[in-house]
Amino acid sequence: MIFTSSCCDNLSIDEIIERAEKGDCEAQYIVGFYYNRDSAIDSPDDEKAFYWLKLAAEQGHCEAQYSLGQKYTEDKSRHKDNEQAIFWLKKAALQGHTFASNALGWTLDRGEAPNYKEAVVWYQIAAESGMSYAQK
What we know:
It contains 7 helices and 2 strands; from the N terminus they run ββααααααα. By secondary structure, it is mainly α.
């Protein structure tokens, strides 16, 4: 199966994994993304998804930061960690990721220690970016 991305156009999954292993953050994100879902790589694998998403997120990959933040909010994950979720979602939101802004608002609003004032700020940023359900 062939995947397409800005870095990985027309590469096989083995070639994408090879690039990820060499430190290519876009390839790392793609591998993490696919381990996070039932895909051509394998069945979902939370540990591998966290591993690859975190490598890409640490290099500043905005979508990886958002995805990693979302994974930290999952109730079923053994990695559930509200502080880490807020940390990674905020990094993505500060790069202009609208979904991260909304998710950050939601996490702050409904987390272990709700911070409604800050949640409203992030909901408003998402709403101003055109996210309709953040406008409610």
